[in-house]
């Protein structure tokens, strides 16, 4: 897909961070944009900001992407307002928490729901619509460089991001095997980006919340270090530029940083040679 003006984009998690930057880029390309986010106040503020800047071709739809019915409602609103969907960003995500055995079932349910089931729902809802439209379309699923490395963050986050990479690779092959040439797809694997993902607990549903847990001094130090790394990370606007360049080239894998390439290659070598990896910490 290399023509965007007048086309329609749906962006989940679009009230802040990478999602907001992607929506901004869509508008700059002349697209109509459907903004979707679970955080209603931030969503409306973002929509108002875009309209105030002269962008009136936006629709804001509060959406809990973990729920299939919410994605179906999002599609219905998009079609009712704009008549089609050409570019889908399954971008919404949360940070997750817990290791392989200490993470609570609520941690797992919340993170899998938002990070992985949202993409599954998005594909099941929007791909048939794109097939029916028979126009040039593209889907970008947001994973993470953590989805290409082994166990570098917390367990739920790492598992879901590996899942999004695998799902997008499967989508690419399924589209090709069925001869569907007018739909392209990409998996976005960003490195350290200056977003507020560390505070994503603010949007955790009440029924999936746990009692507060006191962190050890080491855990507090680790969180502070990672937060500082994010604040020094790439600006979301730069990520959006990289994404649109890749979409124009129908590029499956989109990485924002070259810093992790050696570690990605090392992991592949460890897998193929049966070598146990070194124990690492955060990205």
How would you characterize the overall build of this protein?
- The longest helix is centred in the middle third of the chain and has 29 residues, at 105-133.
- By secondary structure, this protein is α/β, with parallel strands linked by helices.
- It is 47% helix and 13% strand.
- The protein has a seven-stranded parallel beta sheet with strand order 3-2-1-4-5-6-7, sandwiched between helices.
Terminal-residue CA separation: 32 Å
**Radius of gyration, in angstroms, nearest whole number:** 18 Å
Give the amount of beta strand, in percent.
5-15%
The major β-sheet equals: 7 strands, parallel
Overall mean pLDDT: 93
Q: Give the ordered list of helices and strands.
A: EHEHEHEHEHEHHEH
Note poorly predicted spans. Answer: none
Helical fraction: 40-55%
The beta-strand count equals 7
Characterize the overall form: globular
Q: Helices and strands: which structural class?
A: alpha/beta
Task: Give a short synopsis of this structure.
This protein is of the alpha/beta class. It is 47% helix and 13% strand. The two termini are 32 Å apart.
Helices, strands, pairings?
Blueprint lengths: L7 E5 L4 H12 L3 E6 L2 H13 L5 E5 L5 H15 L4 E4 L14 H29 L3 E6 L12 H23 L5 E7 L27 H15 L4 H13 L4 E3 L5 H13 L10
Parallel strand pairs: 1-2, 1-4, 2-3, 4-5, 5-6, 6-7
Helix pairs in contact: 1-7, 3-4, 4-5
List keywords for this structure.
283 residues, alpha/beta, 7-stranded parallel beta sheet, 13% strand, globular
